[in-house]
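Cross-posted from the bioinformatics board.
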Amino acid sequence: MPEHDGLMRVFWPADVSRTDSPGIIVGWRNSGLDVFVLAILEDVEARNVENALKVGILFRNASHPPDRIFQLCGQSSMHVLGLANTPGVDIEPLQIRARTGPGFRRPQILCDRASTIQIIMFERPAPNKMQYMSLDPISLALGDEAERTMYTLGSIDAEEEKEELRKWKRTRGLIEKLNFHSVGKHQPSQKELALPWIVNQINCSWELNTLLQRNISLVRRRPGRALSVSERVVESATTMRDFALMAIWQMITVYIYPVVRRAFIIILLGHRIAAEGLLLLLEWRLKPGYAALKDISATAQQVEIRLQQFCYWPMQYLTLRKRKDDWESVTTSHPDYIRFYNSLWLVANDVIIGMALGSYIIDNSVWVAESISEILSIYTVAALQRTIIWLMRWPAGLKLNNELAAFLGDLFLWVIEHWSYFIEALRPALPRIIWFIGFSSFAGASMPIAMFSDLLSILTLHIYSFYMASARIFNWQYTILLSLFQLFRGKKNNVLRKRIDSCDYDLDQLLLGTILFTLLFFLLPTVIVFYITFAGSRMAIISFKAVLESVLAFLNHFPIFALMLRIKDSQRLPGGIRFELEDTRQTPDKPSNGVSPPPTSYIYLRSVPLTFPDMFHQYFQLGQRIRKHYLSPRVLSCLAIGKFVPPIHRKNLYSLQYSMLPARRAGIWEMWNALVTVPPLKKHVGGEFKVNLNGRRLNGNGRRHMH
Amino acid sequence: MLRSQPRLFARRPSPTTVEYLVSTSPTYNLPLRLLLVTTFIFRVLVGLGVLVLLCSKFARKNYSSEATTYPQTPDLLNIDYVWYFLHIIATSKAGTQSAKLASHIPATALLPASLLIFYIILLRTHTTEALLVIRGLGIQTSTSSDTFLSTATTRFIPTEKIQDIFVNEAFRGFEVRYYLVVVVEGEEDVVVVFPRLLPRRHIVEKVWRGARACLYEPDWGKEGKSG
């Protein structure tokens, strides 16, 4: 198809060839003047290469079916695109003439049809190191759908969620409206539509180039040479060694491996059944709307997360294993790989930190228990007692109602006294509990933290109940005052119409109401000071628990593997692409023997590594969620009128962890099927052995991934 | 003096590829180059001075104590040479002076102050923003970073995602600024080209005309105008 503007686009691997020897350029032709160079094949004729490409000789001995690559690259066949360093030979009008060599900093390309040329140079990402390019940033989370359903399920923040959903819908509508505002719709050309395919072609180029260069010797006509005597001796010796090795390997695979494998599968399955039982217990709800065990306790939540991870790992590993049955250039499973090893690393790190922490706690359990009970008795009993006694005696010059203050103070003091008996009774058992917590930390440092958080909520139960009681009293008084104030003004609240109506009260009604209003109003400060005290201590405990929860979130979700990869090899974490226009004015290349090339721009295509904010995107989201929950005007108004402030729902807080896990875990039967039907690792026994006989190891068997 | 009004440079190696650079860097002449070299040396000296101060504050015991003496100069390529070098600095006149100074400044003041100084000496003197238009691929905006530590932030938008490119006006403080906007399909925020420099109108107009002419094939442009 002829292009209107005569623009030719050439994708040229920057490391393809630096020699000036003649060669055949092979690659994809995405459209008429849009070509993608894969390899330069040397010492062959163009006709032979064309035939070999048609027959498929060049794809022989491929480790996987070449159709898959064609499908991935969106092309049905590979073409001879032109000639390199062969001036004077006739070529077709669409083919290109390239000149490379040590004298040229960049390739020079000519084409009869082209009036301008863009040469886009790129470094081929190495698929065996799991490098790749991508237009969109790699996603470290499992997907937003699970999160969204999780998010809408939470009932406490339902209003906020609805608000968010409404906002989201409105922006969608606006964006759709924006479509009508553009002046003219540009019809995308073939070159523009090819971009996603080109990214795939770049990702496949390294592997295809290796394959082509390996097979080109089949096309090349080369006089055969008989082996010399010494070469024959070496060959037979290596054959003998390989034979012995293969016999031993055969023994192992036939007799030992299946037994080990079966035993391992049975152990895994037993583990899975136990996990399923525990998970059912943790998720059991008395009624559908009620809280499950994991919603109440941080420890249960932590256990649940670990169990879910253990259930997910075999499935995840199996999906990763399937990667081996395909070309390495297929990049769809790379995020899975990062997620899998990230969770493995996190658990390993957690256990390591936990061992250090656990041994410290066990060694010093008496001292730790001592200091904990000390802190508890100082801050939650003695300090509270002192504050209440202070409140009973005109605090800071405020003249409170003596009788009410004495009544409330005595009530709370009495409860505290009984609570301190309970704490005293608990004190001898505390070292035992601490020892147990320390022991549990061998399952990971997150365990003692979660247990400590639970212990804190149990040991400060009295503050929670004081807060509830005082908030309730304050709220009652507040609502009564509000309605009596309406009576005082001669109005009343119409509940049916939701408005204030004026109302003619009788004299006795007005009198009684006004007296009650005055009484309650003068009693209000006394109640308020008690309420403020307990609400303050409750908020302090909640924020301390929030700190613990965020430590847990760090231990459970830190993108440590991704961070390491970012430092070690940033090409494995692509965050998009960028182009760099090469400055050709300062370093003009010498024109190639008389024929001056058309105006050419040299552009470098590079991969942009994932940015750090993208990596910690989920943490920002979590922080925003916590901030929205606790610093919203709704919560502040709740605090002001004495309504109960709900703690943030665990589901919201832990959506971070769940974004690493699927929304629905695979069942036992599903896992059994997957484990049993998994094909054993494909061993290239035939192919590899044959190649080895030639004394050359061509079929790479040492495919290794660095983690 | 080290920065000028935003100026436009265009690089157009072929008619289908163009890069517009808007930069505050001035034209270099001899006095300016000398000034640049002087500021560079000044930055390095200030950085080293702060490092010495920090060293003498927090690692004083290790290097300047009299107990560690070096009878002979260690090999240049040895790790000992580094310690020796630090020892020499710590025991020199400037080193003792800085140690005296460091002992007077509390650590809570010294640490944030030195971080601030490091940030300041790493600042770039001028900002460069670019728009690269490649026909058949898309456009790419890039903004140079504040400090020398990080690279420019780029954003590539494929042509099929570009819904429109236009010049818009907005209030900024007490002035009206014209700026170039790219509307990306399916996104709620538009992409502002040259977001930090926001060059004057004649520059923006020139870039707008150039970008539209370069991005789309010319015959389509005629159809668009007639339609």
